[in-house]
Amino acid sequence: MKRLFWFALTVTIIAYFAGCGKDENGGALPFIETGRVTDITPISVTVEGNVKNDGGSLVTERGVFYGTSPDTETTGTKISAGTGEGFFSAELDGLQEGTEYYVRAFATNSAGTAYGSELRFTANDILPAVSTIEIIEIESRTAIVRADISDDGGNQVTERGVYIGTDPDPFETGEKVSSSRGKGAFNTTVEGLVPETTYYVVAYGLNGVGKGFGEEMVFETKELEVLDSVTFTYNNRELTYGAVEYNNRIWLDRNLGADRPAESIDDEDAFGDLFQWGRRDDGHQQRNSSTVNIQTLSGFQPGHDDFIVSQIYPHDWNVDSDWVTRWTDDAENRTEADPCPEGWRVPTRDEWQQAASGWNTHEDLFNSPLRLPSAGKRGEYEGKLSNDGDVAYYWSTTPQSQESYFLYADSANVITTDNHRAAGFSVRCIKIED
């Protein structure tokens, strides 16, 4: 089995970078990177490079310089490896076991020669021996990769897992999914995949020398399974939504009021409506509903379709801020005001926290099976729309003092926190467990 290795060794990367620039006459040099060191033995290695840009003129020579002293471009041996842009590799043979070497990629065009970073390694350093064995339990959005590290190279394996992406060589362009440490067989679960999509995956193991890679494998995710079809009356309309499974629970496949499941994080057709906390689907939740600054009497639903704004704390649409059993009763059973279909309800704070485990940005919400878009909000003070396409706000049923909890997600954070009940947020329904 061919073994691929990412070489980071006690690897000292010499902080030298001259990959791009211009010569004294204004011509642009190529942009070149020194890549992986692979197929390491005590007497030979293979060094990869990548000409990412030719600088506007043909790269007439590319390759590597290597030797036992720094500044290999002046003191070392040159190995040529073709012409033009793109990835290339050069084999270094006849190395002395136990000897320290330096290596640097280069590329030459009419403006001159550019160099990548300089790496330093010892010829007998050994990386982990990794095998990518098989992909199992392939679903529409998840899969499990089985792999094995048969040899740790004499150094403890401190990290292992897979690289996965939609292009070949996922260790270059894909995402890393870590999965524990040590040698031996292991499984890595990958999530957030796109249905009916081809993926490339490579297992890896990291020791004190660097990363060892297994063989690249290819698989295709399944077609998205529609678990259920729910037809219900919502805002005086008959709608049919699908359902998806996530985190061992069943959810509607789109926000309440949305025309379709989200196709992008800023898909306006998937935004849906924006509810004030605890209000029924009386029409106020439509994004363009009119506003009124008159709170509803204690313990009553408004009975009109206006969005109720409030400039006075606690900024509630009802005068009774202690009325917390609006969408659920004291036992978390849905009430008639819950806008979700029969057999479904607005999630609790705990259910959102469980779903959000592992989410770090609003992109993670969209890339999950729930396909949650960043639908923005409607402000409690004046009813203005804001942050649509940039921030996600999803109500829970759970009250907090005179406010209520919701799921918040932007480009840097995913948290559950509390907010004023007159604000308009999205609703995503969860199926009630038997």
Features:
434 residues, mainly beta, Immunoglobulin-like, 3 domains, 6-stranded antiparallel beta sheet, 5-stranded antiparallel beta sheet, 4 helices, 41% strand, disordered N terminus
Notes on the protein architecture:
5% of the residues lie in helices and 41% in strands. It starts with a strand and ends with a strand. Strands 1, 14, 15, 17, 18 and 19 form a six-stranded antiparallel sheet that branches. With 434 residues, it is mainly β. It folds into three domains: 4-122, Immunoglobulin-like (Sandwich); 129-220, Immunoglobulin-like (Sandwich); 229-431, no CATH class. Residues 1-20 have low confidence and may be disordered.
